[in-house]
Amino acid sequence: MVKVGARARRKALRLHGSIARDLGVQIVSGRYQPGHILKGEIDASDRLKVSRTAYREAVRILAAKGLVESRPKVGTKVSAPEHWHLLDPDVLSWIFEYEPDDKLLNGLFELRRIVEPQAAALAALRRTDAELDAMARALEGMKEHSLAVEAGRIADQNFHSALLRASGNAFVVSLTTGVAAAVSWTTIFKQRHSPLARDPMPDHIRVYEAVKAKDPKAAEKAMTTLIDLALLDTTNARRPAKRKASAS
């Protein structure tokens, strides 16, 4: 009986998550614009062929991520983008489900450019041997597996996470989950249609060597270059129409 109950709970969680994902993709892709009122749970559950409870839980997931807000007598309304928890790993995955909005994509890399180069400079001054070792192990994992497979992408996430931890700034470290998710999903996005055209390993190695040498200026410069090249790779991976629009 316990096993049956556990399976039922897991199935319910998958269902809630699936509904939330479908709605979330439609919101972040712009199909549902800010201010749009989602159908009531009775109509929505009938249309989706799910229970009202499942739909209600999915809406709660979206509300917790800032994508919607529910008000009495108004219903569930799509929130403005400034309320979205954009660094939430689920929200980032929904953004990169198809073609990300130009403004969101550029904003994501702007954030990385603001945070990570300074974090690299701080890491060069404050890193411990253990944090440096963690970065080295991550580089080994990236080299062994490549970014074409999940193990290599996890190693890439670990590299960036170790760098942020090495900054020694608790507020910077609090961004680790979001930055790691951004690194992962942009890497997946870049390889949707073809393998990576450029090997990003040398970019990461230059960051590591600068942090190891305790050279903050070199670390900041190396990380800035890494992010700029990652943005270029991501832009080149977009559909031709999107690339042309971004360049104009």
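Next protein, fold it too.
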Amino acid sequence: MFFNIDADEGSSIRGWLALDNPSAIPALIIVIPGREEIRFEANIIRSDIRELGIHSTGQVGFEVNEDLAPGLDQIDEIMIVEAETRLPIFRRFQIEKHLERKVFLFDCSVMPQRQLLSALLKNFTLNYVNAERFSLETMLVVINNHFSKSLLMFGRSNFNRYSSFLNNAGYVRAALLRDPFEELAERLMFLNILSRSKAPSLSAMYTTGVEPLMAFARDLSFNDQKAMTAAFRGMTDEQRQTIMSPMTRMLGCNFDELPQRRHVPIALENLATMDVVGTRAHFSAFKDLFAGILGVNVFGDAGLVDFAAIRPLAASLSRIGIVADLLDHDLALYSYTGKAIETGLEGSDGETGRDTQTI
């Protein structure tokens, strides 16, 4: 998907949107709180887009005006999304609410921390969660969105694939790591719930890259150590590869690589280039570091929510040899990162430091 906003002149918002199908006429939806959503199709021919080869006819341009949205010049909260995927392509910046910063937060969790995300998203005009869902083309368009000056991206996207683009576009890059056994425990429990859900849109939202684990998680006996051990021994190659060290895969591997030991130092080097690095075990320090970089406590009073069943399951997983082998690289990465952060915190004489580049 490709898009661009050309101008917002108060009573008129102009731009264009091209779908992956170069002959399809895109549809958009205007979202204004308190009003019914307004769906419309692009109806302006953009010969420049056609000449670039992005669309076969160039019928991708649009203008939102007073006819479509009465009182447009007085509306602060308005958003335009692509109709099928509801990908946001425009939202009005509100100086009293939104930060003039662009941020990418790398987090390999499958299950979102809703309270935390809700607090975080309020600070930015455009938000793209579970960014791993998007194609390369869409990601690059979002990253290089020059019209928006307040934008947050969040998810499990491959660092090596997008790092240079994020850096060139002036993004604050952050990473939040987690104990690998706890992450796997939560991942399996969440996928177990999703596998039984009757809402297919939920699976589409959260399971990109982990689809092979859906059937495995659905049939897993969480309270039976022997049965779990047998299940892990009987995994398919695809399932085994999917479970392998997801943090190392996200932070150290290239897009099509499986984690190997050599990727751990690469991941550590990549973390050392980021603006903020933290672990869930030291979340309060991560929150303070983030506030120091952005100038605002974007998480507010929100904290991490720990589900009671996760840690016992993580402890059970840690006693299964094949699981420890599959998470070996993440265990090393997490250990090195945690020690570096603890050293940094100790060096701050009890005060939270503002520089995470101690790895």
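About the second fold: Residues 328-346 form the longest helix (19 residues).
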